[in-house]
Amino acid sequence: MLAPGFAYLNGRIVPWDDARVHVFSPVAKYGIGVFEGIRGYWNENVQQLYLFRVAEHLERYAFSQKAMRFDLPISSDKLIEALVHLCRANAFRTTVHIRMMAFIDGLGELGAKGPVGTAITALPREANRQSVEGASAQISSWMRMPDNVMPARIKCNANYHNARLAMMQAQLDGYDIAFLLNSRGKLAEAPAMCVFMVRDGQLITPSGTNDILESITRQTVIQLAREYLGVDTVERDVDRTELILAQEVFYCGTGAEITPVTSIDRMVVGSGQPGPITRQLIEIYRAIATGTNTAHESWRTPVF
Ligand SMILES: Cc1ncc(COP(=O)(O)O)c(C=O)c1O
After folding, report:
1. Exposed, middle or buried: residue 153 (CB in 10 Å: 0-12, 13-18, 19+)?
2. Is the CB of 37 within 6 Å of ligand 1?
3. How far is Cα 165 from Cα 277, in angstroms, rounded to an integer?
4. What are the record keywords, sorted (predicted)?
5. What is the pLDDT of residues 171-188, one digit of tens each?
């Protein structure tokens, strides 16, 4: 990884190598942090970097801090300022992935609520190979942790150990991605992505009470599918065998964007190629996020 020049730590833009926390801090000891992944999309025509759906990310970031009982978070205005300053300092002229974390710093123990630190990093990141070719998925033997154990709805660092176990198993077994079922045996989500399928022309995705993160990309897909394709989405329980019956399956998230799934447990999905609804959604999503389609202006925050 080629590190950019600067990161943001506790109110200051600092050289990348200076963005450090102490090993005794609660975030290092117990993973007590919450975070957001945000994309900035470079638009070559207008020479602009657009941060996508920042307001929604900041709303979820504040919710995660409240749910984890952090001391008062810093204001959204200050955070937007920090995001913009960091992207400007690094002079990014490419699509980037930003990671913004609120964490418990200092010398506290498990119950510490502060001091709350803020760290922001941003790295160039283009689309994944699988978003063009399609991905192979494994139904994981790891279970998505339930809401009354570790709530998937809260984007806290420690949740990602569940995702890590599933992801590592899938990769060792030769798959691109893992799909996790929840404690009721219904489809939940993938590590850092939500899942959709197409059955008989309709989009279907696990509802918000299936141990998923309330994903901003998921909500964007639902809205764009209705607006541009006239396709409605049903949010409900999804059985694992329905994924094999489906004509199309894809997963989505800020990092993964929209990625087609062409096989599940080595069984081909649909034609074995990215399907027409998925392909159209990929194009519409990209056009809106980069601003080549100027609709939904309020979703894009310009950096320059
Ligand atoms: C567990 C989990 N599910 C789903 C998603 C997708 O959410 P979003 O579209 O808001 O990035 C993410 C990524 O943030 C995630 O970490």
Report:
1. middle
2. yes
3. 31
4. Amino-acid biosynthesis, Aminotransferase, Branched-chain amino acid biosynthesis, Pyridoxal phosphate, Transferase
5. 999 999 999 999 999 999
Domains of the chain: 6-124 (3.30.470.10), 130-290 (3.20.10.10)
Residues paired with 177 in a beta bridge: 137
Is 259 a pocket residue for ligand 1 (Cβ < 6 Å)? no
pTM of the model: 0.97
The pLDDT, as a whole number, for residue 128 is 85
Q: For this structure, is 78 an active site residue?
A: no
Which of 66, 78, 113, 155 is an active site residue? 155
pLDDT digits (tens, 9 = 90+) for 111-159: 999 999 999 999 999 888 888 899 999 999 999 999 999 999 999 999 9
Selection from 173, 53, 36 nearest residue 102 by Cα: 36
129 Cα: distance to centroid of ligand 1 (angstroms): 19
